Amino acid sequence: MNALLARHPRLAALLAGFLSATGFEPLKLWPVTIACFALLILLIERTPDRRAAFLRGWLFGVGHFTLGLNWIAHAFTYQDAMPHWFGYGAVVLLSLYLAVYPGLATLGAWWAGRRFAFIGPAFLLLFAGCWIASEYARATVFTGFAWNPLGVTLLPTGAAIAATLIGTYGLGALVLLAAGACLLAVRRQYRPAAAIAVPLVALALWGQFSPAPTTPAGAPLIRVVQPNIGQDEKYSAELEQAHFRTLATLSGKPRPAPRLIFWPEAAIPAYLDMEPEWRWRLADLMGPGDLLMTGATKVYFKDKGPYGTTELAGANNSLFVVTPDAQLAARYDKAHLVPYGEYLPMRSILQPIGLSRLVPGDVDFWPGPGPQSLTLPATLGRPALKMGVQICYEIIFSGQVVDRAHRPDFLFNPSNDAWFGSWGPVQHLAQARLRALEEGLPIIRATPTGVSVIVDARGHVLHSLSSHRAGYLDSRLPPPLPATLFARLGNWAPFAFLLILLGTALALRRGKS
């Protein structure tokens, strides 16, 4: 191993990064992730200069993201505007960019370590703080791409419960600290290793044995529908009626007790605010007091000429709440859109050279105003509820999913993971579970092909439908927990943890001087 590190440090960094991504879903080999980050720490400690410090972190990131984001290539097989093989190139190109952030973390830790003499445990704390800053930057710069934050690998261990205090970006620092503790133990520096490891083990035990909130017997009834409609047939006009019959059948017959019925993102090809006949079709599926939440499109038109003709100007990816009398009780418009998926940046340049967005359509989606709590009216003994909505990709952005001034009772995450291959949907679910932990809120996910789930406010999956299976989930709505520390502070919480790490590193450095 030492020979590989000495002779081929760049290759070692690339391979370690590639293997580190096995800690994410579906493999969940989190000990491998920790070992690979211990190797990265060792590589940075032995780095001779700033250029090498950045390059080793960047190569580690290239390997890390190339494996972890392999599902993106699968999305290109569902459109014909661009060659399907381009999906593999897109994974590599995206990884080359995203790897800049681990590179900046390793550069920052190396530079500050050399400049201010942070060594040993102090360097580990410094590196963990730099990782928090780099992951936050990755999630925000150029609209951000927060997929697979490092902390999500802690979900199987129970230590992810720390997200209630320090958020997802703080969890990433805990992975670095675990890796550092392993490295210190190998070097027989048992005291500092134990000082790091004991709190991490305590967190894992807290998470494993923390009781799940009990759902009251009188909680609202819910039904989550998964129609198993694949991406290759989703937009087929010939199958439109068959798809609706599937959704209708799985929604079940009206019951005496009112229900909340949840359908996936873009479940129906209708403009509900403009097509009352579609609203009545949905209303016919409901009993008194029922509400149906479904994804659909809101469109906007503009005048085209002097004769009153119009053309499509833009659209919202929306969630509508439909009542039994065919009214629209509320609407949420997706705010955090997917670049190249729902809109094409620099369209005037890219479209003429043959590039397109992955979602079918001739115009771009427009963003909504951001997190909102929609009020679901009280009916037939069911209390009024506040529902937060995050459509598909939005749920991955830590600290950006809840209207904190109007805290909801639960979050609904309608999604379409049908084009994400086998790795994407389970990774998406893992990140949704982190949002439940952070905010102390239950989450309901409805997807066309899976994984549809009901998650409690501790991030536990209570009920689920596996991929590529038509079905439904019947349950009662899990209760929320009191607002967590993270729910009150948002991403100020991981930044406070960053300051604690740096302050402790500084104290250790002074203690050695």
UniProtKB/TrEMBL annotation:
Give the InterPro entries listed for this entry: Apolipo_AcylTrfase, C-N_Hydrolase, C-N_Hydrolase_sf, LNT_N
- Supply one GO molecular-function term: N-acyltransferase activity
Q: Where does the source fall among the domains of life?
A: Bacteria
Q: List, alphabetically, the GO terms of the cellular component aspect.
A: plasma membrane
Family to which this protein belongs: Belongs to the CN hydrolase family. Apolipoprotein N-acyltransferase subfamily.
* UniProt record, GO biological process: lipoprotein biosynthetic process
Q: What does this protein do?
A: Catalyzes the phospholipid dependent N-acylation of the N-terminal cysteine of apolipoprotein, the last step in lipoprotein maturation.
Matching entries from CDD domains are given as: ALP_N-acyl_transferase
State the name under which the record lists this protein. Answer: Apolipoprotein N-acyltransferase
Q: Where in the cell is it found?
A: Cell membrane
- State if Lipoprotein is listed as a keyword: yes
Where's the CN hydrolase domain? Answer: 225-479
- Known pathway: Protein modification; lipoprotein biosynthesis (N-acyl transfer)
Transferase among keywords = yes
Gene label: lnt
Q: How does it sit in the membrane?
A: Multi-pass membrane protein
Q: What is its EC number?
A: 2.3.1.269
The transmembrane residues are: 27-44, 53-73, 85-104, 116-134, 154-186, 193-209, 489-508
